Amino acid sequence: MRYLFEEYAFDTDRRELHRGTEAVSIAPQVFDLLDYLIRNRERVVTKDDLVKVVWNERIVSDAALTTRMNVARNAIGDSGEEQRLIKTLPRKGFRFVGKVREGQGSSNADVTDAPEEQPKQALALPDKPSIAILPFANLSSDPEQDYFADGVVDDITTALSRFKSLFVIARNSSFTYKGRAVELKQVGRELGVRYVLEGSVRKAAGRVRITSQLIDATSGAHLWADRYDGDLSDVFALQDEITVNVISTIQPKLLQAEIDLAAARRPNNLSAYDLYLRATPRYYSMTREGIAEAIQLLARALDIDPRYCAAASLSIFCHTLNLLHGWSTDPQSEMKDATRLSQLVLSIDENDPETLASVGWGKAYISGESGAAAEMVDRAVALNPNSSFAWNYRGMTYVYAGQAEEALRSFENGMRLSPLDPMLFGIFAMTGFALIGLGRFDEAVAAAKKALHKHQTFIPAHSCLASALAHLGRDAEAKKAAARLLELRPRFRISNSTHWPRLYIEGLRKAGIPE
After folding, report:
1. Domain 2-103 is of which CATH architecture?
2. What is the DSSP string of 392-411?
3. Of 30, 345, 393, 438, which residue is most buried, by most CB within 10 angstroms?
4. In the beta sheet, which residues pair with residue 430?
5. What is the pTM of this model?
6. For 363, which DSSP code?
7. Cα–Cα distance, 15 to 17 (Å, whole number)
8. 251 Cα distance to chain centroid
9. Could you tell me the maximum CA-CA distance found in the chain, to the nearest angstrom?
10. Any idea which fold 130-264 has?
C-alpha cells in the first residue's frame, strides 16, 4: 500500500519513504512507528499501543518515545513545535492528522494533493511483445542526476526499438508519466502495452546504482529485477554498459513470457503469432522430431499470414538444420524450401536484422556463397548491434567463410548479449570450429565438451570433438568420439561438409570418418 500526503509517498510494500523523487533515509523502527500512526489515523494512538506494536511490549521510557516521535516527525518535514502532521494529545497519545490518499502499486514519482486523473480508455495490445520504458526515478540528493537517469532510459528505449519483433512505445509518450504517481496497470491500459520497465537511479560518493524491474502490466506480476553498480568517472560508458545488461535480459525474457502465454491459451483458432510462438520451443529442442513439428506449425502460420517474416525466418533455420544434421529425407527439396523462404523474407523486409542474419547463414551453409553471406550478416549487426541473434549467426557465417578470428569476436558479443541463451550449446560448438580453424585444438575440445554438457546428442559438437582430438594426437579418444558421431548419424560423411574449414575436415579424416 502507498500512502500519499503533501509531497511524500510512504510505501509499505517496499518500506520506502520518498519526498518527491528523493528517497528519505529512515530507520526500520521509525518506519514502523509512522506505518502504525498512518494506518490508524482515524483515532488517537496511545503509548501502550505503540509499545505493544513497535517495541514488542519492551519497557520504553517517555523520553525514548518522545525522541523517536521527533525523529519520525523530522523524516516527514514536521516538528514537535509545529505538529503539522503528527499531533501530540497530552495524557492521551498521538494522532496522524495529515491529509492522506491511498494508492496501490509502487512509484518513486512526485506526489501532490491534486485529484488523480480518470483512467483513459484501454488500447488494444499489439500482436507481438509490447513494452514501455518509464522514466527512471532519481533517488539522489542531486537533481542534476536527472539527466543521467533520462539518458539511461533513452538508451534502453532506442536499443529495444531496433528489435522489429518488439512493439516499443516512443520516448515522448513514456515520458509523459515523469513525476507522476501512476499505477502500472493504468500505464499498460493507456499505452496499449503488456510489459512495463521501471527503475531508479541513486548516486553517492562518485558511484551510482541503477535498479530496474520488468512488470506484466496486465496482471501486475514481477517478471524480472536487477541492479547495476558503477563508477561515475565515465558516465557515458556506464550508460552503455547498463543498456547492454538490461537489453540482454529483457529481450529473451519477453520472448519466453510470450511463449508461456501461448502455451496457456487454448489451441483452437490460433493466430499466426500463436503458431510461431508454439514453434519456437520445438526449434530450441534441436531434435529431429522437434524440428519437424516446428516446420509444420510455421507452415500453418504462413498459411494464415503468407508474409509473416518471423515465421518464414524461423522456418529457414529449421530446414537448414535438417540439412546440417542429416535429418532430411529429401535434401534437394529441403534446399529449395530454404531458398524460397529466403527470397520471401528479403522481399518482405530486407532491412530486418534477424532476416538478414538467417538468410546470410543459409547462403553460407547451403550454397557456399560466403561473400554475399558475409555482407548480409555484417549489415544485420550494423542495423542492431544489440541483437545476440545477429551476432551469433554472423559468427556461424564467418566460420564457413574461413574467418575464424572474426567468428570468435561475433560469438563473444553474442554470448555477452544473451548469456542464458537456450541455444548456447550451438554457439559453444561453433566456437569450437572457429578454434580448430586457428589451430587452438585444446580450446576446441573444451568448447565441444561444454556444448555436449548442455546437449548430449548435438551432432556438430560430436564432430568438432572428434576433429580436435585427432589433431592433438589423442587417437583413442578421437576414434571414440567418431564412433559416437556415426552412431548418432550413420550417414555422416566428409563429402557432406565441403563448406567447413580445412583443418576441421583434416581432423575428421584423422579420426576415421568415411569420405
Report:
1. Orthogonal Bundle (1.10)
2. HHHHHHHHHTT-HHHHHHHH
3. 393
4. none
5. 0.64
6. I
7. 7
8. 4
9. 99
10. Rossmann fold (3.40.50)
What mean pLDDT is predicted for residues 270-284? 87
Give the list of residues 6+ apart from residue 69 with CB closer than 8 angstroms, or none: 33, 80, 86, 88, 94
Q: d(Cα 9, Cα 20) in Å, to the nearest integer? A: 7
Residue type, 243: T
Q: What homologous superfamily does CATH list for 272-511?
A: Tetratricopeptide repeat domain (1.25.40.10)
Cell of 436: 580448430
Contacts of 393 by beta carbon, 8 Å cutoff, 6+ apart: 357, 358, 360, 361, 377, 380
Quote the mean pLDDT of the chain.
Answer: 84
> Where are the domains positioned within the chain?
2-103, 130-264, 272-511
Quickly list DSSP for 58-90: ----HHHHHHHHHHHHHHTT--TTT-SSEEEET
pLDDT reading at 382 higher than 70: yes
Mean pLDDT of 199-217: 83
**What percent of the chain has a predicted confidence (pLDDT) above 70?**
93
Q: Closest by alpha carbon to 401, among 372, 359, 442?
A: 372
C-alpha to C-alpha distance for 81 and 59, rounded to whole angstroms: 26
**What are phi and psi for residue 439, nearest 5 degrees?**
75, 15
pLDDT bucket at 223, cuts 50 / 70 / 90: confident
Looking at residue 214, the DSSP 8-state letter turns out to be E
What is the grid cell recorded at 107?
A: 512509484
Q: How far apart are CA 356 and CA 255, in angstroms?
A: 20
